[in-house]
Design goal:
The complex is a heterotetramer, with two copies of chain A (331 residues) and two copies of chain B (214 residues).
Chain A lengths: L10 H12 L4 E4 L4 E4 L9 E8 L10 E2 L4 E7 L5 H10 L6 E6 L2 H16 L4 E6 L20 H13 L4 H13 L1 E7 L19 E4 L10 E4 L3 H15 L7 E8 L5 H17 L3 E8 L9 E8 L2 H8 L3 E2 L5
Parallel strand pairs in A: 3-5, 3-6, 6-7, 11-12
Antiparallel strand pairs in A: 1-2, 2-5, 4-14, 8-9, 8-13, 9-10, 11-13
Helix pairs in contact in A: 2-3, 4-5, 6-7
Chain B lengths: L1 E2 H17 L1 H9 L6 H14 L9 H15 L4 H15 L5 E2 L1 H19 L9 H17 L3 H17 L24 H16 L8
Antiparallel strand pairs in B: 1-2
The chains are: A alpha/beta (331), B mainly alpha (214).
The structure holds adenosine-5'-diphosphate (2 copies) and magnesium ion (MG) (4 copies).
One magnesium ion sits at the interface of chains C and D.
């Protein structure tokens, strides 16, 4: 394994410490519960927004903490839901009189930890709600009744509820907005390579020099099927068709289009994918009103990308346009 | 009849086996899952071993509850809630007891199983650790009826768990990370079920030399 | 080769087309000369800033075009200096009455193309100056008289001259600032893997599973020496010592610290590197006043990172703080 | 004595060889450089072949200048300015001529060499294509003095270029990308020098069947 890593067990804490050192004015690292929170949280004039999930998805979610986005992120170890205690303590730490919204990608481990933590927090009198995000169209077969996974589309939910809470919306209203954005968001991803969790030290699965995995989640697991590598435009079509067909997105729609890198794919390639997706949508009469190209929710060093569409209306577009300041900065 | 010392032996063996098999359990989970199963268990049970002396041993139930709190609170992923729930449910059945009979042990396991099912919304045949836990409990029950020795019972349970774990290979996963891969989960055993078998084998092979009153 | 690519010869044009499609209001793509320029360039109230170089360094330099940064970027093919014609045409396209500043990383091919293009532009009456950036301390041996390479430190030069030109500084003043920032900037990089240029289709060099290259530039060439992989903190020390010792940076200094990903390294690992660099500098009495963690100047999909320090004074810090709006956006 | 048709043959062979050897030249550059040498030459000389018929052939000098403009303007990397300069300098020496003697050819090559040296600030022994160009020019000069046939001269030049290219292997690169690797550039030949040898060999092996007046 060739990574910038010391003790693999310290991978997440050291990353979080680095993040806090790089953002001393805006971020605070709480080592006991492995969490990153805004230095000004909790604020009683706004609902606190928390995202919990495993680590390995950076910039999601610890680098999405900041004004207009999250008040705290509560990550577990690499690809593992946070232990219930951490969620519970995070909820208490950011408890605001306007309430707390927990955002959770819909994976079994996360669901359970957050369900349990919410129960305990409610018993303590914290006004807390949980929103499960499930934008992944790769998981649609009704046989797999655990439901869809939450993947890169969580960015849009975070951005929208972050903006709404910053504007003073109450917990019910923030929850309504989050559910609405989630319901309008669809994603699918593919992997060109497997990723290597630091504690494992080797790739999670073997993939031939000409093979790819289609329909992957964000935890480095294999996808729904394996295929041969194909030209970039066909890779895009492979994701775009199921995504468009699912909501469905239709001629006349205005959308946000995200090409999300999974960690090991350079941004140059993401723009090649963006180009084709944008053109294909235009041909279908769908207008890309907002574009997002880069890394938003990754799987460590996995090469590959996911494609997300969000159906826009004036409300959602306004929330996406609202300013935000987060640790994933450029200057 | 088993007592607190036997319970301690079982819990300690579970914890030690989890720590010792971090890599193996992780590799099993990596086949169609995300590879963190071994890491999650090891990090949590490490704490159980570290805090070992501090657990309240007023009775078996209290002891198991304290261990459950560590597990639930400190193990991440699906395993924390699942294994924590199992310990909690077993503790509830042992309420107030300082000795447990074979029937108590079966009741505790059955309670753990229904607890896991409720927590994870899973059923037998979904290709989870339940598919090892239920058969090993059945085996214990059968041996109790047959009236064999504790040592033989434990061995039978281990054999049942191993056979059951292997029997998960042709199953299609319907719960957990592996389920997202659909049909591709066929052909490899469930990591959780194998872990249960490995733990039972460790318990069985050390049972006779476990020390403490018998 | 597993990349998001169609025809490798169309790698750069398709990327640029994608970039322009994603930024229709702010960016224009000129296919004839393979260039990206601001839609509002040239503006006669400001010096036009152009960066030219090979492609494969994204977000440098095409994604650094925008308000407060570049007016145009003129990239060649992957890792190749742009043909002289393209530089010449770019210079003419952004010709402002306040003049044009060409920023060039100090590599032989780039030097020659820009020298020739500058001569031709001057002959045409364009007021143009060229600044060669050479921040790489890996190249210091006096035997290699081609001089230091320009690498990720170019970001700081771009940012500073971009801010100064936006504020109305004249060409001489912008040049002075660029030279000053360049003189205060030092960088060194290392590679954990080789990168794969799309036209070649295989890695540029072979590197063992436990080997790294120390002292690499930004064109995927091997570095100054090969070493065994080491813990993350030692990787940082390997770069930090030569960088600190070169200017030298000293106790009492305020610096900007950049941990730049080379394309295939996830941001989580970059923060692990940041953590140690920040702490080591603090121990030396050097204060990190501004931090930059992410991808600024890459080598396609190479895993690895570079470390840059800039010695700050009030002037430089003010210019780095100035607002900017570029294609490498988050929302 | 060679004429416009011979010059066309030489330029066309250079262009075609560059296009045909894109991968080979790129791989040579990848050893200690950045691997783009083959790509850069091929993309530029492709345009030379495409625009072939449109070049002004008023005299040899004009023709070479037009080709030089394509090369300088359209080839990226170090090679555009280097090869473009070589063509421009050769053109300058051939000013006004429609026939060139052997001595003219040598003068054109010498002028190209000094042009490259000035453009790239390089000297002989820096491990660049100069280290093949200079020896092949020397060889032509020696053959002219010895009074051999044009065909033999061209063969001798090709042999000299090949030997010289191989002789770059133990050299340490002092110019270009390869120079950044320092001592590590020792042990592989310079990509530019090998390209010159391959081109000369192509010229030599097709010289007698090149067509046109001799
Ligand atoms: N819903 C569930 N109910 C019961 N057991 C489950 C469930 N989902 C997964 N498991 C068990 O947990 C194991 C995986 O645990 P772990 O790797 O910690 O979870 P995760 O899938 O969150 O990474 C599986 O091998 C399976 O035995
Ligand atoms: N300064 C120089 N002067 C003359 N020739 C040079 C110089 N630098 C490099 N070369 C030649 O150019 C070749 C590499 O060309 P190319 O790959 O296009 O350049 P780059 O190093 O910019 O990628 C080298 O093999 C060498 O023969
Ligand atoms: Mg997991
Ligand atoms: Mg797992
Ligand atoms: Mg090059
Ligand atoms: Mg090269």
């Amino acid at each position: 394994m060739k990574k910038i890593v010391n003790d693999p067990q310290r991978f997440v804490p050291e990353m979080l410490e680095g993040l806090a050192l790089a953002n001393p004015d805006s971020l605070r690292y709480v080592p006991e519960y492995n969490l990153i929170m805004r230095t000004d949280a909790p604020r009683d004039d706004k609902v606190s927004i928390v995202q919990g999930s495993g680590s390995g998805h950076e910039p999601a979610h610890v680098m999405a903490v900041g004004k207009g986005m999250l008040d705290a992120a509560c990550p577990g170890d690499v690809f593992s839901a946070p232990p219930m205690d951490y969620v519970y303590e995070t909820t208490k730490l950011v408890n605001s009189s306007k309430g707390v919204l927990l955002l959770v990608n819909n994976y079994t481990g996360d669901r359970m930890a957050f369900d349990m933590a919410q129960e305990m927090s409610l018993a303590d009198g914290v006004n807390v709600k949980t929103l499960f995000i499930d934008d992944d169209v790769a998981v649609q077969d009704s046989t797999w009744t655990v439901g869809r996974r939450g993947v890169a589309g969580n960015f849009f939910v975070i951005k929208a509820v972050g903006a709404a809470s910053e504007a003073g919306a109450d917990l019910d209203e923030v929850m309504r907005i989050g559910e609405k954005v989630n319901s309008m968001t669809r994603t699918m991803g593919l992997a060109l390579t497997a990723c290597t969790p630091p504690a494992k030290g080797s790739p999670l699965f073997e993939l031939g020099d000409d093979e790819i995995e289609i329909g992957v989640g964000i935890h480095g697991e294999p996808g729904r099927r394996r295929a041969k590598i194909m030209p970039g435009d066909e890779l895009v079509d492979t994701l775009l068709e199921p995504v468009v067909g699912d909501l469905p997105f239709e001629s006349g729609d205005r959308v946000a289009l995200m090409i999300n890198g999974l960690g090991g794919t350079p941004i140059s390639e993401l723009y090649i994918a963006y180009r084709h997706a944008h053109k294909q949508l235009a041909e279908k009469g769908i207008t890309v009103a907002k574009s997002y190209v880069g890394e938003y929710c990754t799987s460590l060093d996995m090469a590959g990308f996911s494609l997300t569409l969000v159906k826009l209306d004036d409300e959602i577009e306004g929330l996406l346009d609202a300013p935000a300041e987060i640790g994933m900065r450029i200057f | 009849m088993t007592n607190m010392s036997d319970v301690e032996f079982v819990v300690r063996t579970i914890a030690q086996t989890a720590v010792d098999n971090e890599k193996y359990f992780g590799d099993l989970d990596a086949v169609v899952g995300d590879g963190d199963f071994g890491y999650s268990l090891a990090r949590g049970f490490e704490i159980v071993l570290k805090d070992w002396d501090s657990y309240d041993r007023t009775d078996i139930s209290t002891f198991l509850s304290k261990v459950a709190i560590t597990i639930t609170g400190r193990i991440g992923g699906t395993s924390g809630p699942i294994w924590g729930t199992a310990f909690l449910r077993a503790a509830a059945v042992a309420k107030g007891k300082t000795d447990i009979t074979g029937d108590d042990a079966v009741a505790m396991l059955r309670s753990a199983i229904t607890g896991i099912m409720a927590r994870g919304n899973a059923e037998l045949g979904d290709k989870t650790l339940l598919d090892a836990l239920a058969p090993l409990t059945d085996a214990i029950e059968a041996e109790l009826i047959a009236g064999t020795t504790t040592s033989e019972i434990v061995s039978a349970a281990a054999e049942a768990a191993r056979a059951a774990a292997e029997a998960t290979t042709p199953m299609i996963a319907r719960r957990g990370r592996a389920s997202y891969t659909g049909e591709r989960s066929i052909g490899s055993p469930d990591a959780g079920a194998v872990a249960v078998a490995v733990i039972l084998e460790a318990i069985a092979s050390n049972w006779d030399s476990r020390g403490g009153p018998r």
